[in-house]
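Running this now, will post back.
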Amino acid sequence: MPERLPVLTILSPLPNAVVGDAPFNVMGAVSVGSLTEPVSIDSVTVEIIGQPGTVQATLTYIPPSGGEPAQVTFKTTMQITGGQDPHGVIISVKSDAGLPVIGTVTVTVGPRLVPPSAWVDIQILPFLLGLDPPSFEPATLAADPRVKSLLATIAQAMANLQVVKDVSLYWMVVGPNVGYISNPPRLRIGFWILEQDFAPQDLIYPTADFPMLQMTPEAAKGCLALAPLLPQPPYDVRVPPAEAIVVTFALSISTLAIQFIVDALLPTINSDAERHSASVGSITVQTGGDNTLLGEVSGSFIGIAVNGTVAETLGILPRTGTHSNMAAVVKSEASSPLLNDLLMVLPFLGGIIAVGEGDLSGKVKSTLAGLLQDLPAWIPFRDSVLSAAPSLQDSFPFPMLVLNFASFGTNDSGVIGAGVGGLADRDQSMVGVNLSGPKSLPKYSPGSQSSYDVSLTAFEPDNDQMTWQVSGGGSTGTVGIGSLSQEGSFSTAFPISSGSKTFTVSVSGTETCASDPAQTLTGSASLAVEVTVPEAHKAEAAPAANANAASDMAAGAAQPKIPLAS
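Update: finished.
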């Protein structure tokens, strides 16, 4: 038996190399020992820890030269097919020395690159952000306070959506992340729906300030680059009251992402279906070039098989009270009367395609239409956002982004849309505050709470809050206003234990110009509420103190503002 063991040298891959998920080379050399007592190399095998099987490397004998002993080189290719980083590559040398010689090198796949499930390409005037093109790297953008505020606002809004909570039971909802496209220069914001075992080293986990998973900046850069460039609309479409176009945008939501959402909602759909003697076996989503989103439905209703298509035609419609065209569902329909009846009792596709809320004529009412209607055409923000452009800041003390969609429809890949954003200045005449809720409580129980909703137009109140109050010594508090929805809600009790009384529920707020505190806008609204305590309720507890003021404050705090509203 030889006295020396062979010496293994691994040339590739290098320790901690990023090899990706494509085949990579494993190469090296084995010294056969001394010139007088060489070792005979029988084989070199390679395996990846956690993957089945081994691979025999190809061996090449190199004779002794210049006093150096002979060598055997080896080469093969390996490929990582799954599992989490890091991965161990084991090289085993067998020889007539009897004892194997084993070497290990650690490698990583690196960021697992997957295209976004949905993304928005934004072409914006860079001076509005005050960033030079070299600063548009993802890591730099992620650190910019205004961009972080934008992403956090989107994340907060997403985390509160029931559809996101439902999908997260089966998939990981990741994003938003921001990146930069250099040619042509534009920002890209991306979102992903991923398998639960997606590489954890490529993710940033939720925090109190950012309650959604995010890609790491490195992973986001690679993943966002996989999505095709979306064509931008022209700058020359300006709608009042905008004075100049400052941004164009284009968006895409993949058909697969919509299908993932629908699949995740099927248990909820069938839970509701049982109450109506119905069931849904499957819903298959399709898109095409006719601007129609389709759902092929297979199920049953009152013992009868139901198969058909739910169709929503997408487009743009004028938004009431503005000059803007906004994304909308222009028509919803079912392919059969029985399917239409089923739609009237089941929330198909979780608001992505249609929901069964029909009138007596059987017309399908679309929840997607309601979601799109909630997207405001006017987005107010504070002039501090324009601090990088002093001339604009002086001209727009109460700025507002005016959205206008140029298109909204479908193609073979999914839902697509595009539009522009114009810059406008707001004045007192544009401010609108709407307060809605019950105006009559004829069977009021002392201490019980009634809910009221607040919606704003062209108004960005200080501290992102409105103050509400009930007359006659009633409760008072604040209500947080969501920057995207421009809405909030609160509940209150009325200070009455018997008889009837009319109270005034009011909300009010002030917006102060960031650069010139002497300039302000104000907004308010009120409702007269007639409250009656029936005889049977007089003995009940006295009205409770304001139990929801703290929760209203917390609700407001949970909705950070986008940078346009900071």
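The longest strand covers residues 304-318. More later if anyone needs it.
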